[in-house]
Amino acid sequence: MAAQSRSGQHVSLGSHYAVHLPAPDDFAFWRERARGLVQCDVPPDRVSWIEPGGTGDLFAAEGPSRGDKRLPPPPADAPPVRASQRFLTIARSAALHSDPARFGLLYQALWRLQRQPRLMEDKADPQVRRIEELAKSVRRDAHKMHAFVRFREVQEEDGTPHFVAWFEPDHHILRAEAGFFMRRFANMRWSILTPRGSIHWDGEVMHEGPPARREDAPGGDPVEALWRSYYASIFNPARLKVGAMLSEMPKKYWKNLPEAELIPQLIAGAQAREAAMVAAGARAERARPATLAEVAQGAAACRDCPIADCGTRAVAGEGPEHAPLMIVGEQPGDQEDLAGRPFVGPAGQLLDDHLTRAAIDRGAAYVTNAVKHFKFTQKGKHRLHQSPTAKEIDTCRWWLEAERALVRPRIVLALGASAARGLLGRTVSVARERGRAIVLDDGAELWVTVHPSYLLRLDGAAREEQAALFAADLTAVRKRLGELAG
Ligand code: URA
Fold it and tell me: N or C terminus of the chain: which is more exposed, having fewer CB within 10 Å?
């Protein structure tokens, strides 16, 4: 049997392909095979998608016992496969669902997308609806995992603490959610055991393990300190819908939550907090903090952007309350996040050297950052700095403006473009603005220069040249401070 393909070629339609997925959550594998099948013009009813442990398909006459080796290479002139970003995003989640029909369903949609590129916008289409339901149910499962995994501490032979949790996901979300736990518990050794598989983090590398049984996980109370520092912090009052929460929390989760009796109190507390937030009005009308201590507390509790969940803590500014000079960096780094103080790491040391040479007393200045939390990506044991986005800087401006309103410095020194954006609310070119004052709304002068970590990234002559320019900028600021004081 032969038919006209999308590329105009004739391909056999007699074949039935059995695609054996190496893992039930291997979306990348599905995507690659699905592309090949579309390019070979293989209609959905000629493909079986078989998960590991699946029984196979009696009708997949051509499907080899393992793998899908017989799929021919796509014709050279096969048109590109079309898949909207929206489809891929939803499909990536839906692929993790436990419904054995999901990969077939996704292939049907991909097949149809070639002729109906706007298919995913058709909310009445039963296949689109089903894919959306699958994706939603997977997202809900992931949310439950974030909220209800409870670690218990066990000692390894050498006495190192190891934190072990038992969780029963509905879907194949374990691997997809591993990164979430790795970022939050980067410095601990932990394992999450589930009936679908297990993951283990040794502080550096993630390992996967076989399915586990509830008896494999320790019983007893979850680790209190972890509960306090993490679970309470993710209990977001603004997002809490009691009815939805209770319906989302079937009995099977309750049995893993020895602190479940706390929930009524948490709900009550959350509702009070939410009421307080509502009473305070929208962010724009939020009362400005009256003291620097309130700024520090407010920034620590702030969850207005995703960075807030990144590091250990918010790092508040430090220095005299009415310092004539305010120095603003970008965001705390690794060491600042651990120490809870701005500019104490390598960039801070270089800044201190330059301030000393320019005869600026750091102790007399108020030192802070445009963004109060450390944004990073985890690489093994290391937390690598990531620049905040313009949106994140703009969100955190609220706290920087509050600090400036309280300290009322005569001069504000912005170290780098992120700091300058935090102060001006727009992108500025450091090269263009450095060496002269920009007058701010309250009459203070903003002086812009490079960030010391920029100098740290340079070598040799380039570093010397930039260090000299940085020194000249600091000297100009010191002179101007003298003029304003005199
Ligand atoms: N870099 C910054 O911008 N701020 C700090 O506090 C440390 C490094």
Answer: C
CA distance 29 to 428: 44
Does 446 lie in the same domain as 349?
yes
Q: Would you say residue 338 lies in a domain? A: yes
What is the predicted pLDDT for the residue at 368? 98
* pLDDT per position as a tens digit, 32-69: 999 999 999 999 999 999 998 765 444 443 343 344 44
Q: Tell whether 161 is covered by a domain.
A: yes
Q: List, for the chain, all residue ranges whose pLDDT scores fall below the cut of 70.
A: 1-14, 54-70, 220-286
**CATH number of the domain that residue 306 is part of:** 3.40.470.10
Q: Would 225 be classed as within a structural domain? A: no
Assigned token pair, 315: 């790092």
Query: Are 157 and 138 contained in the same domain?
Result: no
Q: Are residues 362 and 432 located together in one domain of the fold?
A: yes
Residue 360 is which amino acid? I
Question: Could you give the 3-state DSSP secondary structure of residue 19?
Answer: strand
Q: Which atom of ligand 1 is nearest to the CA of 418?
A: 3
Look at residue 330 in the predicted model and tell me its pLDDT: 97
Closest to 215 (Cα-Cα) out of 164, 160, 173: 164
Relative to beta strand 445-449, strand 437-439 is antiparallel
Q: Are residues 353 and 478 in the same domain?
A: yes
Ligand 1 pocket test, candidate residues 313, 343, 421, most atoms within 8 A of CB? 343
- Report the atom number in ligand 1 closest to the C-alpha of 369: 4
Which atom number of ligand 1 is nearest to the Cα of residue 416?
3
Q: Which helix (H) or strand (E) holds 325?
A: strand 325-329
Residue 326: per-residue pLDDT: 98
Residue 310 in tokens = 């990144």
Q: Are residues 51 and 70 in the same domain?
A: yes
Give the pair of three-digit tokens for residue 439: 């007058």
Beta strands in 1-124 (DSSP E): 2-4, 10-12, 17-20, 47-50
Q: Which residues line ligand 1 (CB under 6 A)?
A: 329-333, 336, 342-343, 345, 347-348, 369, 453
159 CA to middle of ligand 1, Å? Answer: 36
Whether residue 345 is contained in a domain is answered as yes
Instruction: Domain count for the chain, please give it.
Output: 4
Ligand 1 mean position to 333 CA, how many Å? 5
Q: Indicate the top mutation candidate among 307, 328, 366, 369 to test ligand 1's pocket, ranked by most ligand atoms within 8 A of CB.
A: 369
Among 185, 216, 247, where does a domain finish?
216
Q: What is the pTM of this model?
A: 0.48
CA of 460 to the centre of ligand 1 (A): 23
**Residues 130 and 155 reside in one and the same domain:** no
Compute the distance from residue 43 Cα to the ligand 1 centre, in Å: 56
- CA 483 – ligand 1 centroid, Å: 28
Whole domain around residue 192: which residue ranges? Answer: 149-216
411 and 331 in one domain? yes
Same domain, 260 and 170: no
- Measured in angstroms, how far is the CA atom of residue 178 from the centroid of ligand 1? 29
